[in-house]
Amino acid sequence: MKHEPTIPCDPCAGGAMSRAERGEQKCAQVLAGARQVFLSDGYEGASVDDIARSAGISKATLYRHFPDKAALFSAVLAQECRTQANLHPELGYHDRPIAEFLLDLARDVLNFSLGEFGQSIYRIAVGETARFPDIGRTFYDTGSEMNRTRLAPALDLAVKRGELVDLDPDYAAHVFYGICKADLFHRRLFRIGDPPDAEEIERHARRTVETFLRAFGRRD
């Protein structure tokens, strides 16, 4: 198939595109259809034909925005991760005790990573990264790396306010997210037992914060 020139589509930059609003809406339409197909069929089973059909557009229109399936999957992944990160703008940290901020953040992380979409997208990204390294890079940049940039400034401020010991905020941020995903995440990933309920998630969130503060909290 002869593809039409690709129109850059950055779903994570506030929806801004270089073409008219109609093109912007088409891009969102493509991403919505792709998200549905990737979740139902996985990356390997998803076809461009199915994605175009789900989005209600032609393949030519799809290719105007995305050159191939890998690029489309990366865009869906980036959009979803950023959407999840922005679900709770109230998670500001400047005027809040660090323990309170960390607890809300732990709840946010756990609810996403233990949810059906979070689990599905993780499995797909890990399974396809060997063949499509860009997918792995996108998953890291919009997941672990974005989480680090979200948390590190809060930890740095908490050190200056005397709530935490002197630490490397980037490293400590990765430690926090590692504790968040301990046990529950892997049990859910490998489908061991029933999915955790709200009470178990809340208990794990609180233990995460308690464990982190035992390691990095000021005691004087």
UniProtKB/TrEMBL annotation:
UniProt entry tagged with the keyword Disulfide bond: no
Domain HTH tetR-type: 24-84
Keyword Isomerase listed: no
This protein's UniProt keywords: DNA-binding, Transcription, Transcription regulation
Pfam families listed in its UniProt record: TetR_C_7 (PF14246), TetR_N (PF00440)
SUPFAM superfamilies associated with the record: Homeodomain-like (SSF46689), Tetracyclin repressor-like, C-terminal domain (SSF48498)
DNA-binding region (UniProt annotation): 47-66
GO molecular function: DNA-binding transcription factor activity; transcription cis-regulatory region binding
InterPro entries per the UniProt record, alphabetical: DNA-bd_HTH_TetR-type_CS, Homeodomain-like_sf, HTH-type_TetR-like_transc_reg, HTH_TetR, Tet_transcr_reg_TetR-rel_C_sf, TetR_C_Proteobacteria
Name this protein carries in UniProt: TetR/AcrR family transcriptional regulator
